[in-house]
Amino acid sequence: MRGALALLLGMEDDIEVVKDGPVEELAAAIRRVLAGDTVVDPALATAALSAGPNPLTSRESDTLKASADGATVADIAARLHLSESTVRNYLSSAIGKTGTRNRMEALREARSQGWL
Fold first, then answer.
1. What is the per-residue pLDDT for 18?
2. 19-39: pLDDT as tens digits
C-alpha cells in the first residue's frame, strides 16, 4: 500500500497490499509492519512475478516518474539534470518498450506492470 496512510505511519517501504482488500486484512498487515515485519500481498507478488523482468533502464524509469505530474520536457530535464534531448530520448524509449502511444500511457503501463 503506497499512499497517505503508509506515509503517515512511516511504513511506505514495508507494506504492499491491495488497497481494495478487506479492511481486516489491511489492519492485520499494519499490525505486522508495526511489529517489524514486511508485508507483501500474495496477489501483488504473483502479479509482479508474472510480469517478467523490467525492460526499462533506471534512467527511463526516473524520467517516466518525473513526468507523472504532467511536467514539461524542460521541467523534467532541469529536475534530473539532463538535456531536453536526452529526456525526449528516454521518454521515447520507454514508450516503445511499454508498447504505448505517449508518456502518460507509458507511465500507467509501467506502474501496472510493477516496473516503477
1. 56
2. 666 778 778 877 887 888 877
Q: Is the pTM of this model over 0.70?
A: no
Cα Dmax for the chain: 49
Cell numbers at 35, concatenated: 511489529
What's the grid cell of residue 113? 506492470
Phi-psi region of 21 (alpha: psi -120 to 50; beta: other; left: phi over 0): beta
Question: What string of DSSP letters covers 57-110?
Answer: -HHHHHHHHHTTT---HHHHHHHHT--HHHHHHHHHHHHHHHT-SSHHHHHHHH
